[in-house]
Amino acid sequence: MSVPDESLLGKVATQLSRPPSYAGSSKASILSIAVASYGCTSNVDEVTQPTGFDPEAARLFEAVVEAAFLVANADGDFDAAEQSAFRHVVVTACGGFVVERQVSALLADLGDQLTEDGMDRRVQIVARSVAREDQAREVLRIAALLAHVSGGVSHVEREVLGKLAGELKLQPSAVDAAVKEAASAIAD
Fold it and tell me: Among candidates 22, 119, 134, 21, which has minimal Cα distance to 66?
């Protein structure tokens, strides 16, 4: 993969931090909301509820990132340029709540888990961390947005989005809606 255009990376990062068009009154995406709790763990090893850490939000953040990671790995080749772009976009979209080393460590863990468990099992595990339909739709949208970093949503990436939709108990049309929303957001 060639290095993605900086303006594309900026567009994707901006869209990741915004709510989807169908969200109504929400002012932020699930990624932005969940990362606030995930980021709390960066300064202290053992953070508890009184300090602002919400383990459910942290799990949701990891599920959102893993879903996008799985889509990025759909073709079996998540090369250095894609990884760098992925890290950059996630760090930028998270607005300072996570740093690149945290995202790099998370991606390394996710890579190990994907190797150990396989794609289908990881898709099932991601789905268990997503409790509501609006969260599920947002997981698909964010994964589709990040797929655009590598030149759009390919056939194999769409297949992984379809597997995610199935495990998340969404209709197949949810994949089309997520891909369409992502493409529209990038075109603006």
Answer: 119
Question: 129 or 187, which is more confident?
Answer: 129
Rounded CA separation 62/107 (Å): 10
Angle at 109 between CA 103 and CA 114, to 5 degrees: 120
* Whole-number Å distance between alpha carbons of 181 and 84: 24
78 near 104, Cβ under 8 Å?
Answer: no
Query: What digits encode the pLDDT tens for the residues 6-48?
Result: 676 666 666 666 766 665 656 666 666 677 666 554 444 444 4
Kindly report, residue by residue over 95-122, the tens digit of the pLDDT. 878 888 989 999 999 999 999 999 999 9
Check which CATH number belongs to the domain holding 72 and give it. 1.10.3680
Domain count, the chain: 1
Contact 138/26 with Cβ under 8 angstroms?
no
> How many CB atoms lie under 10 A from the CB of residue 133?
12
Q: The whole model's pTM is what?
A: 0.81
CB neighbours of 166 closer than 8 A, spacing ≥ 6? 172
Q: How far apart are alpha carbons 19 and 79 in whole angstroms?
A: 29
Task: Tell me whether residue 1 is in a domain.
Answer: no
